[in-house]
Automatic annotation (TrEMBL):
Secretion signal, residue range per the UniProt entry: 1-24
Keywords: 2Fe-2S, Disulfide bond, Iron, Iron-sulfur, Metal-binding, Signal
This protein's name: Ubiquinol-cytochrome c reductase iron-sulfur subunit
Biased composition (Low complexity): 28-55
Domain Rieske: 61-158
Key word Signal present: yes
Organism: Aerosakkonema funiforme FACHB-1375
Any Pfam family matching the protein: Rieske
GO (cellular component) term, any one: membrane
Metal-binding listed as a keyword: yes
InterPro entries: Rieske_2Fe-2S (IPR017941), Rieske_2Fe-2S_sf (IPR036922), Rieske_Fe-S_prot (IPR014349), Rieske_Fe-S_prot_C (IPR005805)
Length: 161
């Protein structure tokens, strides 16, 4: 076999092996199998708290799991219909949670929780907000909207209204 034939076969093999990946990437999510054991239902809306971010009858929405909160120190969920939410454990009382809309009121950047400062800090202009959303240091002038949050089972729930 000469070099040109060998390289042609390598090229054909590469295309053939890449084709299933390309087809899978272009297919819609509706073709994925339904894992009913992990599906949130009306009877158990927190079976998979990040899969179904719809509000329950009491207005609370699942935003993540306690395991995620403990591992990362915060949960940022941008998939809620009401807008993004950032949840942390309250540093003054670790049995309670604090939840805010993480959109900085100055220019709209997403704030992050800084454990060492015990503040929400905007990466764009260094605005700082307290756990209760109040402005600690500008340039922001308005506080972050806050929400009611709680733990129920293994789910972290937030009530936006």
């Amino acid at each position: 076999m000469d070099r040109r034939t060998f390289l042609a076969w390598v090229g054909v093999g590469w295309v053939a092996s890449s084709l299933p990946v390309a087809i899978a990437a272009c297919s819609s999510d509706s073709t994925k199998s339904d894992n009913s054991n992990n599906k949130a239902t009306a009877a158990n809306p927190t079976a998979n708290p990040t899969a179904n971010p719809t509000a329950r009858a009491d207005g609370f929405q699942p935003v993540g799991t306690v395991a995620d909160l403990d591992r990362k120190g915060q949960i940022l969920n941008k998939r809620l219909a009401s807008g993004p939410v950032l949840v942390i454990r309250n540093p003054d009382d670790t049995n309670s949670l604090a939840a805010v809309n993480p959109t900085c009121t100055h220019k709209g950047c997403t704030v992050a929780w800084k454990t060492n400062k015990k503040l929400f800090v905007c990466p764009c202009h260094d605005a700082e907000f307290a756990v209760d959303g109040k402005v600690v240091e500008g340039p922001a002038k308005k506080p972050l909207p806050t929400y009611q949050a709680k733990i129920e089972g293994d789910a972290v729930l937030v009530k936006v209204s």
